[in-house]
Amino acid sequence: MQEYLTFLMGVFPLFVMIVLILKLKTPIHYAVIITLILTLLVAVFMQHTPLLTLGSALGYGVGKGLWPIVIVILGAIYSYNLMLKTGSMNVLRDILASISDDKRIQVLLISWCFGGFLEAAAGYGTAVAIPIGILIALGFDPLKAAIASLVANTVPTAFGAVGIPVSILAEQLNLPVTTLSATIILQLALFNILLPFVIVTIVGGSLKAIRGVFGLTLLCGIATLIPQYIVAAHLGAELPAFAGSLVSLVLVALLAKRRKAPTEERWRIAVQADTFTHRYSAGQIARACAIYALIFLFIILCSPLFPAVKSYLSHFSSAFAFPLADGGNLLLKIDWIATPGVLIIIATLLGGAIQGASPGSMFLVFFATLKQLQKSIVAIVVIVAMATVMDISGLIAAMAQTMVNLTGGGYLFIAPVIGALGTFVTGSDTNSNVLFGKLQAMAAEKLHVDPNWLAAANTTGATGGKMISPQSIAIAVSAARMEGLSDKIMSGTMKYCCAYIVILGLKVGLIWYLIIA
Fold first, then answer.
1. How far apart are CA 255 and CA 213, in angstroms?
2. Range of the domain at 410
3. What's the gap between Cα 113 and its chain centre?
4. How many CA atoms lie within 13 A of 470 on its CB side?
5. Model confidence pLDDT, tens digit, residues 57-75
6. Alpha helices per DSSP H over 289-410
């Protein structure tokens, strides 16, 4: 009885958070603060956690939330905002729009390839908002553009914002980041192949839309999957989404340019590309790509490919100890340079200078970005602190034990659902991993399952929940200018989300029992 009572008390704050966000429409930064307070009360009165331990858990969680999570999101959005300021994002948009007059190819280029690149570089809704805007400018139906972009913004979110969801999860659970990253790609492999066909079908209105572009669509998915796996298995979490989206973008663009047959009228975009695009010189294109090229370069230089650089920069770090009542401590290590967020900010400053931005304008854009993200910063920091409290107080262990007792070996089939729930509620793959990553690892230990497999299941499940999270829907509504029609976007996306989670759950469970175990 005590076991189930502890489980219910551990679930209670999360249930309150869901009600606050989804039913009462409470802003997420307020909802998570309330949830944190409830979690602290449960930890004190149910788990009898010492106040010293709780204070250290809060301090550690806040520090962990700020560095490296907030710093990488800040850097990613700053780079995007500065590119808007310099006009570089418009150059990239115009280049994409000029490649083909076939809307099936355009949705692959813009929602899948370019959207995947934006998710890799920035995340935070840019991979939904920007593709929708470009598609509508090309004459796409706003509802179809919104649904296609939401469905496309799933697989890349596992490694979004320069891989921060996976990097944080690997660090939190002390798992090898390359193994975890490769496992995630394997679990998502089928969706890398299927989803390009799905988004073509969405904009085309039926399966008939695939006729004529089947080979190109298949190659688009394969070109995304293979580079992702190679990079994940050898370099870790920062670059797989970059690699997959860039390779698929180049391949689809080349194949589209080689098509000689004229596009059928029913598949032709409503607005001709040459009515709003321009011819750009090689220099203009190089300047437009400068920030993202430097981000890619710096992250490569600080990766395992260059151990000397990585080792040298690791000296620029600090460690902070937070004491626990039992005599132990929580150790927070901060890398001041060799962390993706700092590398992105440095690349943005250098790339912005190349693009013609003055120091003053870069300064103003940075603080505007900080102001833009202030509520999200609060939400992220509080969520990480709450997850730390739940872990230190033993609530997560109790919840994991109860769930395993109730479901037994069937837990593997529902593990992705937990990740999806986390993203649905918080709107973030990172937050879902922080909230439930430890639970998945503990469940894996009790079931004698490789923790990489269930930790990966949390991340892959979170990618499915992303497409229907209220935050993503709100971004899609704004980008598509469909105010008051969020229910249409939600209902149009829901069936794809449900199919995604069901297929993923079956895949995670069956592969483990039939192949791995």
1. 10
2. 2-516
3. 15
4. 15
5. 999 989 988 887 788 778 8
6. 290-301, 307-313, 340-354, 359-372, 374-392, 395-407
